[in-house]
Amino acid sequence: MKIIRVPCTGRVDLGFIHRAFSNGEDGVFVGGCWPGECHYVTEGNLDALGNMHLYRKLLQRIGVRPERLRLEWIAASEGTRYAELMNDFVKQLRELGPLGEGEGLDGAALRAKLDAVGRLIPYIKLVERERLRGPVRKEAALSAFFASDETNKLFDDLIADKLAVSQIMLLLRQGPLSTGEIAQSLKLSPSEVSRHMNSSSRHGLVQYDVSRQRYALA
User: Which residues contact 148 (CB under 8 A, 6 or more apart)?
Assistant: First the structure.
């Protein structure tokens, strides 16, 4: 366990969490003050809660177990609780196995998926501020907001499609691929791949070789 201290969990940026996973860490644990006990008027622990929900959705989208990211409330005086939570999290990670291996992803596939997420982090942070910030600053309300069908649809429309395209673009850097090959690699349906490729083609990102029936970067 590598301990990194910050003044407030609100300082735990999405990019920090992503960097840890990109560096091969098997899990990320964020410990913050209990809701209502934040030392700052910003209630940064609730910002951390929102980021946790958002990044867990990203992990799920790229085939990584979202349980690898965990947030718990721990007061400075709760040393025993901290030790118990650390032991429990390490046990959980051992059961999940090493990052990628536990999900059945080889190293190259995992790196490509994480790279695709990393390219979108600045955009995702903007979307979070503008569209995916819960209307009520309460723990239960935030958790309900991110679990709602409306938010899941918003996530799909604003982020999931761009994430899929980002992954496809990285795959095509390795060479031309057919719709079926892309679908198999990313575990998407051929119809989903076709939809993304048609959109990318209209934006001049890819081109289709009819004779070879392969897509390539434009």
Answer: none
Render pLDDT for 32-62 as a digit per residue (tens, 0 to 9). 999 988 888 888 999 999 999 999 999 999 9
**Whole-prediction pTM:** 0.89
pLDDT digits (tens, 9 = 90+) for 159-183: 999 999 999 999 999 899 999 999 9
Are 20 and 28 within 8 A, CB to CB?
yes
Q: What mean pLDDT do residues 138-144 have?
A: 93
Q: Which residues contact 29 (CB under 8 A, 6 or more apart)?
A: 1, 70, 71, 72, 85, 86, 89
β-strand pairing of 69-73 with 206-209: unpaired
**Rounded to a whole number, what is the distance in angstroms from the first to the last CA of the chain?**
44
Q: What is the DSSP letter of 159?
A: I
CB 197 within 8 A of CB 215: yes
Exposed, middle or buried, 175 (CB in 10 Å: 0-12/13-18/19+)? exposed
Q: What is the mean pLDDT of the chain?
A: 93
Reference 25, options 1, 6, 52; nearest CA is 1
Element (DSSP H or E) covering residue 215? strand 214-217
